[in-house]
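Ticket opened by: R.M.
Priority: normal
Category: complex prediction / small molecule

The reporter submitted a protein together with glycylglycylglycine and asked that the result be attached to this ticket for the collaborator who will pick it up next week. Submitted input follows.
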Amino acid sequence: MKTFNIALLPGDGIGPEVVAEGVKVLKAIEKIDDSISFTFTEFPWGCTYYLEHGKMLPDDGIETLQQFDAIYLGAVGYPGVPDHISLWDLLLQIRKQFDQYVNLRPVQLLNQSLTPLKGKTEKDIDFLVIRENSEGEYAGAGDWLFKGKPEEVVLQTGVFSRKGTERIIRYAFEEARKCNKTLTSISKGNALNYSMVFWDQVFEEVSKDYPDVQTYSYLVDAASLYFVTDPERFEIVVTSNLFGDILTDIGAAITGGLGLATGANVNPEKKFPSMFEPVHGSAPTIAGKGIANPIAAIWSVSQMLDFFGEEAWGEVVLTTIKEMLKEPKHLTADLGGDSSTEEVGNRFVEKMRDEGDRHRVPT
Ligand code: GGG
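Result attached by the on-call engineer:
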């Protein structure tokens, strides 16, 4: 029996509501498949904790999380706590402390009806964005000089180390080679005359070790346009931290919205736990109403299962999502349905049992 220990960080707003449905899916899997079990340990960290304790997590929080195989995160941020505090002190701290330098964000159209792009089908929008997740524009380097004075100056420095840049590009090349896909680097070397010139140079250097991989290199502005007009150009994409964050929101827009966008924060060496999260935030305006879409959080479960080496189950979860999307009435309101968050989770589990049988996942 394989046991995977999962730390739950439901976080803020709709986070707890959607994480509950993802956990429901994992619990259903261990009921069907007696070769797998999960343990769940929940931590109440986030903005409510901050308002009580003056910090997003306790001083030994990172040490506590280190013992787990994976972290399942809901959402971070809530009115009353500045966004840069909630994001930096919890989400970004975990990514950095656990060297989760790879952020895997699939841009995959799971049902043709979901895209606002005329004439595009599932086969036209199916790529993976590999976002650098540990440094770059999110390095947190900078200063705020002469604060409040007329001569006030603010510096936000992008940090692109040789190690950080090369390892993410190399990871992307390995992925492209493994999947026999093209690799597109997205940067901005014409305007960012240090960081992105360096990025392009490293991409060029590393490409020499992968002559079998067909490469492309686009400026981020052109790439943003192609995401909308010509998404079929992309198979595997590698880009910097900030560009990856922005581009994958365009990715979400062309595949059905943020209720369907997932991200895995991976430490490939498995020296530290990796973290799985829906891309969406805490959505305070709908929090507590039971109407949040749990599908992105459930897709994160599929990514987690792949990461655990349980790819057959990862595939069953993804296929079940596709089946669910064929019946919009039984989805949440953002996808045209009238079901609650919990009803979507319940229906998902029922469908997944059939899907598991169909694919004969070993039990
Ligand atoms: N689901 C995680 C969450 O709350 N994300 C909010 C966010 O702003 N993330 C920024 C990022 O991924 O860089």
